[in-house]
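Sample intake sheet
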Amino acid sequence: MIRRLLATTALLGAATVALAQAMTEGEVRKIDTAQNKITIKHGEIKHLDMPPMGSGMVFRVKDPALLGKVKEGDKVRFMAEKIGSAYTVTAIEVAK
């Protein structure tokens, strides 16, 4: 039982580290709640093979509630994925 618990804890820890590594730093430039879109100036998004976007890039958001977590000008960490033909923010948090 203890071995299973330790194995589960190790897997959760590894998943947390993987998510943190996949998140990209950026700055919110614009929020469009009517269209469920956010413009983020960001660094390289390695898992999408995307270079930094110094002027910002428009992303869709998977969950409109994500837009309520940030405001224009916030430094953020976010996860983006390509869903269909659109680059989509699937997680976002204010950077600490």
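Comment: Residues 28 and 73 are 5 Å apart (CA to CA). Residues 2-22 form the longest helix (21 residues).
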